[in-house]
Amino acid sequence: MGLFYSSGKKINRDEFKKVLHGIPELSDIERSYAEGVFQNALKDGISKEELKKEINDLKRNSNDPLDPDEVKKLKKKLEELF
Questions:
Q1: What is the mean pLDDT of each run of 10 residues along the chain (82 residues)?
Q2: What DSSP state is assigned to residue 11?
Q3: Bridge partners for 46 per DSSP
Q4: 3-class SS at 71?
Q5: 70 CB contacts (<8 Å, ≥6 apart)?
Q6: CA–CA separation, 78 vs 82, rounded Å?
Q7: Phi, psi torsion values for 11, nearest 5 degrees
Q8: What pLDDT does residue 29 have?
């Protein structure tokens, strides 16, 4: 077994939306944007590895409405589900 163990858990769309609504700093526009970004990944649930990729893409995109602190909060809240 390697250093990283994957539990096989995936976050579904409802859990994702619940996390988004649990971050009061996010506006409705930012929540909608995040839902759109993660839409394809959430079709079958998002794994921890997929989550990391999507979060890294958000961090690199300077044109999105989420500021770096909001991305960090989103990442932290979602990782708590694993």
A1: 58 92 91 90 90 88 85 89 83
A2: B
A3: 11
A4: helix
A5: 23, 25, 26, 30
A6: 8
A7: -90, 130
A8: 92
Partners of 11 in beta bridges:
46
Write down the domain spans for the chain: 13-79
Sign of the dihedral through C-alpha 66, 67, 69, 71: positive
Q: At what angle do helices 48-60 and 68-79 cross, to 10 degrees?
A: 180
Tokens of 47: 């794994």
The pLDDT value recorded for residue 4 is 46
Q: How far is CA 54 from CA 1, 2, 38, 51, in A?
A: 25, 23, 7, 5
pLDDT of residue 7: 61
pTM check: above 0.90: no
Distance of CA 14 to the CA centre of its chain: 12
